[in-house]
Amino acid sequence: MAYDVWGVRGLYTSLGSGWTYLNAHDTPQIPEKVASAVARSFRSAASVPPPEPALGSHSKHSAGQPEGAGYPAAARRAIADLAGVAPDQVVLGPSVPALYAALVAAMKPMLRRSSAIVLNPLDRPELTAQLRRADAKAAWAQADLATGDLPAWQYADIADGSTRLVSVPAAHAELGNVVGVADIAEAVRERSRAWVLVDATAYAPYRPLDLDAWGADVAAVDMAQLGGPEIAALIFRDAAMFKRLDTEALELEVSPGLAGGVPAVVDHYASLVAGPAGRASRRNRLKHSMGETTAYLNGLRDDLHTFLGTLPAVHIVGVSGEAAADARVERIPRLAFGVTGVPSQTVLQRLTANGIVATRTRDCQLLEDMGVADMGGAVTIAMSPFNTQNDIEQLVRTVASLA
Fold first, then answer.
1. pTM for this one?
2. Could you read off the pLDDT of 100-154 as tens digits, one per residue?
3. Residue 337, helix vs strand vs coil
4. Last residue in a domain, options 245, 268, 291
5. Does 185 map to a domain?
6. What angle separates helix 32-44 from helix 262-270, to the nearest 10 degrees?
7. Taking CA atoms, which of 11, 108, 161, 312 is between 20 and 30 Å from 385?
8. How far is residue 369's CA from residue 263's CA, in Å, rounded to a whole number?
9. What is the per-residue pLDDT across 163-215, written as a single tens digit (0 to 9) for each?
10. Number of domains comprising the chain
């Protein structure tokens, strides 16, 4: 079935306000199905269901328990379908930084002062800050400053027998470049038995997660970045990994009311495109739906790069310029751009005046090294499943009025 973007737009009541939302990286719009599920979960979380009239082999063993007691388990099942794993491989938490801090604490039996972890400049700074709390020396991978890519070959030189953890993002949240996680994991395995930790938050709204394809050991995802509640998860490659951890450190409290909205997020992405007839699993429906969604959004991404790239005063970070011209970097539908001679705040104001919601690209060392500060800052654009060709044309016309 062809991708019905107008049908998808009908799933988001917030789109009726008249704004063109191109800020999925910062504040994703919440589908009505998810908002209703969270409201329903908060109403029912503290209530106790009525007792069953008779006991039997199929009766509930949670009689007398609040309904919300089962919501975290339902959230784990939904995230397991998102990643293609079993629910017992999923750990919930209030945020990805909180889960990274918990993972560092849980890995204490594996870490010694002679151990090492490998960090990188593409990870979100708040995640790197949590990993640096580990009682281990930190080694750093370096990014390609022309494209923002994270070359895999360097990991064969950085990782060694003392390395216990290697952190990488699946994609950069603002530049949009997809990291070659599988190649990095392969390079790490040549020299080390370290765990590969992947922040999949920016990647997850566009493609199904697959730890096996990545060769990753642990992945993290923030459900709020998919338009869901403030719930995050760590997904482990194998439940046997918990035997090496202090699992008490991973026992984080989450709100049952928020957890109750997580299944609706996964169901939403699994139903953006109708699947084949029959009783397909949620995982298979999700893969089919997101496959069609990815193809549609990749078309918008290509048009956005093409049309913005034709404006001579526009510089797309990691894409424009001779050094990046011949690079073959896979990208999700996100980018950061600047206009020569025009401060990013002025660009943002012009976009807002024309009904477009975007954000100023955050300051960080990587983007500073890539020259973003020198050109007066940049503006980040990130697309959602409901964006249309009209949105791209409106953006390009507005930027052209400045360029």
1. 0.93
2. 999 999 999 998 878 999 999 999 999 999 999 998 999 999 999 999 999 999 9
3. strand
4. 268
5. yes
6. 150
7. 312
8. 40
9. 999 999 999 999 999 999 999 999 999 989 999 999 999 999 999 999 999 99
10. 2
CA distance 196 to 163: 10
Tokens 């992405």: give the residue.
269
Same domain membership, residue 173 and residue 253: yes
Q: How far apart are CA 207 and CA 202, in angstroms?
A: 10
CA atoms within 13 A on the CB side of 320: 23
Q: Any idea which residue has 């957890």 for tokens? A: 259
* Whether residue 358 is found in the same domain as residue 322: yes
Residue with tokens 């799933």: 11
Q: Could you give the CA distance from residue 241 to residue 252 in angstroms, rounded to a whole number?
A: 18
257 and 158 both lie in a single domain: yes
User: Angle 389-400/344-353 helices, nearest 10 degrees?
Assistant: 130
d(CA 153, CA 144) in angstroms, rounded, equals: 12
Residues contacting 257, CB < 8 A, separation 6+: 38, 41, 42, 45, 68, 71
Gap between the Cα atoms of 82 and 287, Å rounded? 9
Q: How many residues does the chain have?
A: 403
Task: Find out whether 333 and 298 touch, Cβ atoms under 8 Å.
Answer: yes
Tell me phi and psi for residue 139, to 5 degrees.
-110, 155
Q: Which helix (H) or strand (E) holds 137?
A: strand 137-140
Q: Look-up: residue for tokens 């849980």?
A: 106
Strand partners, 196: 166
Q: Is residue 84 part of a domain?
A: yes
Round to whole Å and give the CA distance between 245 and 275.
39
**Which of 239, 268, 297 lies at the terminal end of a domain, its last residue?**
268
Distance CA 82, CA 265 (A): 10
Burial level of 46, CB count in 10 A (0-12/13-18/19+)? exposed
Which DSSP symbol is given to 127?
H
What confidence score (pLDDT) does residue 53 get? 65
Q: In terms of domains, do 139 and 286 share one? A: no
Calpha distance 261→94 (Å, rounded) = 13
